[in-house]
Amino acid sequence: MNRNTIFPRSLKYLLAVAEYSSFTRAAESLFVSQPALSQQIKQLEEQVGVQLLERSGRNVHLTDAGDLYVRHVERALAEINAASAALDDLSDLSRGHVSLAMTPITDYLTASLIQEFVSQHPNISIDIKEMTQHEVEEAVLQDQVSVGVMFSNETLLTTGRDELEAMTLNADALVLASSKNAAPEKTDLDQNSSTELMKQPLALLNNRFEMRRQIDAYFTTHNLDPRVTLEANSLGFLIEMVKYGGLRTILPESIVASMEDLISIPVEPALPAHTATMIIRKAAYRSRATDAFLRLALLWDLPSVLGHRRGS
Question: Domains in the chain, please, with CATH?
Fold first, then answer.
């Protein structure tokens, strides 16, 4: 289906102007003349009876009414795209598309799941975006992606948005992680309290991450004042720093188990558990390709995957 033939030209032009804040750049992106684009926008404003764009010199901005209108237009376009996907689904899974949004930690854990899905459905394309936890939820709510994957604590799967449905992907515990070469002797590990262990310098994700907020809540609950020496927004960078020795970090146990150079150190009281969670919008259309991904994900067993990896 050619979506351009059924989506009104004036609305398509409005979305382009909203994206580029410029008639000139919008016209260039659409391969139309600027006068033709301006005329379409003018006719649209006359039809809806309000000013949608504020024109000041070369800069163009949405008015309050324009911002509201564009959000509804984007939702309408998402529904048209969903309708096209539904028609595609009349065929078998020899083609299709799945769009995913993930937090930077869950992409570490789900690589084997994605690999298995690609192996089973090589003709289905996958688009993966890395976002913060809040952005993942918003992307799912706005139908920008089909499935979101994120972490939540052990008792709350989402932030409580009624429009979202949550499914547990994998339950995991947080652990204190160290380089194997810099880890304490095993005899020193048996009865270590969190107070003693947290005296060591820590490298942690920054507080934009839900996992860091859970860790900070643990510190507060147990009256701990950790030595946070390094903060970053890259999990890969933290892991590499810990591998060098001298720093420790707090990670999901499954990630530590998959790293040959890392070892987990027991902590009392135990660090919190949390859940890798998939979210979808309840009322959203789900393509056959998306359903196939969800079915595989719900059967996916991370512990067995890691056990096989360590034994290989």
Answer: 3-87 (1.10.10.10), 97-170+275-311 (3.40.190.10), 172-274 (3.40.190.290)
